[in-house]
Write a structure and sequence with these properties.
heterodimer, A: 142 residues, alpha+beta, STM4215-like, seven-stranded mixed beta sheet, 2 helices, B: 236 residues, mainly alpha, two-stranded antiparallel ribbon, 6% strand, rod-shaped
């Protein structure tokens, strides 16, 4: 169930830190944007996994992925507000360590985030879009 | 052949031979340094080419293929970005340039790999390769997706993979450089030891000669006092 907890941890972190800054479009949740109101689309993309350590009967796997946040701002309103939002979004995950090592949680897990990349995508239909991508990895013994 | 100094003291090696050996050693050292520079300089090119080749292949393997245009637009720029248009269409077209066959994944991928790898193979002492995609909807493929298809993050995920795979390769290169450096260092130490030994023996021989008054005018006595021709004359 690790992929489930991985997503849960990352999404909870973003939800808490982002608060009411803008509405959030979560993965596989229907969302209808309001014209002219900025919003963000939050996605977790899983990458490759490799065996990082060999144990007796089980091995440690390193599992990698990307946190992708698309920031949508209204067209013809300049780029300042969009840039401010991507700054905020990138700061949440930049070199962050997200863990749920408290005893009540079902699984102990630490997610290590890297440096964030910000890309200006530009005009897409009725929106002006920026993207923030932060790579992450976690270790798990299988 | 046993050689003796002016004082009749036995020298371990003929000074002429010793100087020759030191010079040879120095030449060897210079040659080794020169080889070392060439090895370090040239070692980077195959690594750079292999990295570019693998990364380009991974990009293609990870790319979605609908019409084949995106995958044919992965460009390998030599020493800079190649912003030219999509590589030629490998599919048969009619007199208006319209395709008369549906894209076949194998032919599209094969063509894309061949075009990119040509640039890499032909590159002579490249400074860098820039991998990019020139098609206008590349940002959609990477970050946005469409209504019925997700964002593929082709470049970001490939980069994640390649970074991880390059770690052991870079570590192996570091080890090789370290081994070479150790060799160079040992050679330098050996050279210095030989020079020191030679100088020490020569000084000892001169010291002994001076004590017996066979040479004069320079050097230093064992007791640390300077002696010159006057002192030597007095002894005489």
């Amino acid at each position: 169930m690790s992929f489930k907890y991985e997503a849960q941890l990352i999404e909870e972190k973003f939800n808490t830190a982002w608060g009411n800054t803008t509405p959030i479009e979560w993965d596989n949740v229907d969302y209808n944007p309001t014209a002219g109101t900025s919003y963000v689309k939050f996605t977790i993309v899983n990458g490759n996994s490799t065996i990082a350590g060999i144990g007796g009967s089980s091995n440690m796997h390193r599992i990698r992925g990307l946190i992708s946040i698309n920031v949508f701002t209204a067209l013809n309103t300049g780029s300042r507000s969009g840039r401010e939002l991507v700054d905020q979004a990138a700061a949440i995950f930049r070199e962050a360590q997200i863990s749920n090592s408290d005893s009540s949680s079902a699984e102990d897990m630490t997610i290590f985030c890297g440096a964030g990349n910000i890309t200006r995508i530009g005009k897409v239909e009725d929106w002006f879009v920026y993207n923030v991508t932060v790579p992450f990895y976690r270790n798990e013994i299988f | 052949m046993t050689t003796y100094g002016n004082s009749g003291r036995k020298l371990t090696l003929d000074p002429t031979k010793k100087i020759k050996k030191i010079n040879e050693n120095h030449e060897n050292f210079e040659q080794m340094m020169s080889n070392f520079n060439i090895i370090i300089k040239d070692a980077g090119y195959p690594v750079l080419k292999a990295t570019a080749r693998h990364t380009h292949g991974r990009l293609i393997a990870r790319s979605p293929i609908v019409t084949g245009s995106y995958v044919l637009s992965h460009k390998v720029g030599l020493n800079g970005k190649d912003s030219s248009v999509t590589y030629g269409d490998p599919l048969p077209v009619d007199e208006h340039g319209e395709r008369i066959a549906q894209p076949n994944r194998r032919s599209v991928v094969g063509y894309a790999i061949a075009k990119g790898q040509q640039v890499i193979a032909k590159a002579h002492r490249p400074k860098k390769f820039v991998l990019s995609n020139s098609i206008h909807y590349a940002p959609n493929v990477e970050f946005m997706g469409w209504a019925n298809s997700p964002a593929y993050h082709v470049y970001a995920l490939t980069l994640l993979e390649m970074r991880e795979e390059m770690k052991p390769i870079v570590s192996e290169i570091h080890k090789k450089i370290f081994r070479l450096m150790t060799k160079v260092k040992n050679n330098a130490i050996k050279n210095k030891q030989m020079k020191d030994e030679y100088v020490r023996e020569e000084l000892m021989a001169m010291d002994a000669d001076a004590d017996t008054g066979m040479i004069s005018g320079y050097g230093e006595s064992k007791t640390g006092g300077a002696f010159d021709s006057d002192i030597v004359k007095k002894r005489q």
